[in-house]
Amino acid sequence: MTFSFQRLASDGMARRGRVSTAHGTIETPAFMPVGTAATVKAMTNDMVVSTGAEIILGNTYHLMLRPGAERIGKLGGLHRFMRWEKPILTDSGGFQVMSLAARRKLDEEGVTFQSHIDGSRHQLTPERSIGIQHLLDADITMQLDECIRLPASEAEMRRAMELSLRWAERSKRAFVRRDGYGLFGIVQGGTDPVLRGESARGLCGIGFDGYALGGLAVGEPQAEMFETIEATVPHLPEERPRYLMGVGRPSDLVGAVMRGIDMFDCVMPTRSGRTGQAFTPRGTVNLRNARHADDPRPLDETSDCPAARDYSRAYLHHLLKCDEILAAMLLTWNNLAFYQTLMRGMRAAIEDRRLASWAEAFHRREALGDIDAVTG
What we know:
376 residues, alpha/beta, TIM Barrel, 2 domains, eight-stranded parallel sheet, three-stranded antiparallel sheet, globular
């Protein structure tokens, strides 16, 4: 199967599409659960599939350290290793350039990390990152880039953007072309529209199967993120998928889809599930709050997800108070199902050319908030 993107419908800037890969198709707009270390935390793969997820994300840096890319390669690749038969996208390690800044040294050649596990040193170059992702057998490989924290000076944003472009060229040369496998370039440039435009045009000149917007949701307000998306998308080709990395909250996803983004990933639904936060059609519910102790209602009686529909808030609150592992499992399951329902809703709204009214109703429900009274 050839790696491809097909646009099936549009509504304003929003696109309804389909990405075809070696391990199956991905309906877009799509949300990718994060499986950093070859697992979506607190979930079995069957539970993840039951939410409607068609692709997950793994991480080059973490899998390089443990259990090792060569070991996974010898065992048949990441799909076989973790028993996930659908597509996988792997983050190149560029985010760890920012998140592990105290443990790394960066130069033109690449990044040298001091392992957060045992202190050992590991160099990650564009070529090595692409090689690891090849061993993992990722359907979508990401170029190595430098992600910086915002706010930052114009000089710092330019330096990181230009370095990422040079690394993009090296990543493209190192990528082994195979049917059904794609390589994405990553647009950098902070929140500066001029730098973002330069980065996008430079990447298009190199030529990639898809284009990501990196370096957002790293400290800037939502309005600035949306402005940056609006400034960047016109420079990207219509016939390639667009991926907003590391985003985010439900309202972020809705706003970004309306501005032309096709793919997302974020740890928010899984991390929130482990800390007692549940996403529902009427906003986020903190199940550690004592008011849920006697509440017989489910999180969402209309949901297809058993975790949302079949367990009372009182029971979920009890599990959290007792530090039971099942609390993390059920709340993560609920959250991932909510995100996939959100994406299905947007896909249907784009097909019917009613995304604006759908988004208005979504924001209105969120604004209402959760109902305090047990009787509702």
